[in-house]
Design brief:
Helices cover 73% and strands 1% of the residues. By secondary structure, the chain is mostly helical. It has one domain: Orthogonal Bundle (MetI-like fold), CATH 1.10.3720. The chain is globular.
């Protein structure tokens, strides 16, 4: 009996020690994630401008979003275009680089580190400013175009090109997706490629029939993560173009920021955030729903 009680006390001591170690994360999650999440839901039903106390208005903010706010539809349209441009391009480029880096060559680990560097830098303000200088009218990209005899392009000043230029910054930060694809490629048995060679399959057929089906779980994961990140994109559009020109890069994140911190409409901004949350959940649900039709697992199971 005494031995059992002693073991129970030791187990409790270990439990308390574990809770102590993870307490910084628990506190951070409660204070910086859970509380703002719940508070934004409460404020979405109010008029709240920081300087004045919240006033309950029911569904008025949501009704205004869908009936009176024309900028909402413009911002949503730009954001959807951005997502459909940036996410597939980023995944395709990440997969291409992963396949290149999966080849056994000298100093391959060094090359992998170099290609991962943009993701370490992330979507920071400094990188966005650098991008702005590169694609300015007198920037390096236009200078290179002029040097080879091509006309310069107004990358950031033209509504035709601005969103594509912003999307390129997202594509450039492909490192995290590349690492996941590279891990998936390394798990493919080499015997499958040997058998394909014996059968006379070319590179394209081998890729379509072996490589692509076996990495669909990684494609699925990367698609979800990058889609969610793209819907929340803010820094590049705000720093580089501030939503212009003619709101051609006016992403949803910029709209939320302006309503919250420029116009001090915290309640309305919270409502916009929850609309975005519902849209993201809807797109995520569609991807999950479609995954059994195109995602393949070695054991034949489904996610």
């Amino acid at each position: 009996m005494n031995t059992a009680m002693a073991k129970l006390r030791v187990r409790k001591r270990y439990n308390y020690a574990g809770l102590l170690y993870i307490s910084p994360w628990i506190i951070g999650m409660l204070v910086f994630q859970l509380y703002p999440f719940i508070a934004s839901l409460v404020y979405s039903f109010t008029t709240f401008s920081i300087l004045t106390p919240p006033k309950f208005v029911g569904l008025q903010n949501f009704i205004r979003i869908f009936t009176n706010d024309k900028i909402f539809y413009q911002s949503l349209k730009v954001t959807l275009i951005y997502v459909f441009i940036a996410v597939p391009a980023k995944l395709a480029f990440a997969l291409f680089i992963a396949m290149v880096l999966n080849i056994k060559i000298k100093y391959v680990n060094f090359y992998r580190t170099i290609y991962y560097m943009p993701s370490i830098l992330g979507g920071s303000v400094a990188v966005s400013i650098l991008w702005k200088f590169l694609f300015a009218r007198q920037g390096l990209i236009n200078q290179l175009l002029l040097d080879i005899g091509l006309p310069y392009v107004d990358w950031l000043g033209s509504p035709k090109w601005a969103l594509y230029t912003i999307s390129l910054l997202t594509v450039w930060q492909f490192g995290s997706s590349m690492v996941i694809f590279l891990a998936g490629l390394k798990q493919i048995p080499g015997e499958l490629y040997d058998a394909a060679k014996v059968d006379g399959a070319g590179r394209i057929r081998t890729f379509l029939n072996i490589t692509l089906p076996l990495i669909t779980p990684m494609i699925f994961f990367n698609l979800i993560m990058q889609m969610v990140n793209a819907f929340q994109q803010f820094t590049a559009a705000f720093v580089i173009t501030n939503g212009g020109p003619m709101k051609s890069t006016y992403l949803y994140g910029v709209m939320i920021y302006e309503n919250a911190f420029n116009f001090f409409k915290m309640g309305y901004a919270s409502a916009l955030s929850w609309v975005l949350f519902v849209i993201m959940m809807a797109f995520t649900a569609m991807v999950f729903k479609s995954s059994p039709f195109w995602t393949h697992y070695e054991d034949g199971g489904e996610f």
